[in-house]
Design goal:
Layout: E1 7-12, E2 17-22, E3 30-32, H1 35-49, E4 52-56, E5 63-68
Parallel strand pairs: 1-4
Antiparallel strand pairs: 1-2, 2-3, 4-5
Length: about 80
């Protein structure tokens, strides 16, 4: 199964909610009142899509955390 678009958790100032946005889609997959609720939904979508979850900061929009839910090409060194 090919990898689908990465999932971004971003704050929308216009309606003061957190959006779960999948790359390549014009509309948000979901809007939530708290970042925690948006992350939970985003993680489910990223796992299903085998993609990456990118959580953005509220104040400046920069990425604060990344979680990979795909099949990484090589195992991490241990």
């Amino acid at each position: 199964m090919p990898k689908k678009g990465d999932v971004h958790i971003v704050y929308r100032r216009d309606d003061e909610r957190w959006a779960v946005q999948v790359e390549g889609q014009s509309r948000a997959s979901g809007l939530r009142g708290t970042q925690r609720e948006a992350i939970d939904l985003g993680r489910q979508i990223a796992e299903r899509n085998r993609s990456e979850l990118l959580i953005h900061r509220r104040n400046d929009g920069r990425i604060r955390q990344r979680d990979s839910h795909g099949h990484d090409p090589s195992p991490p060194r241990g």
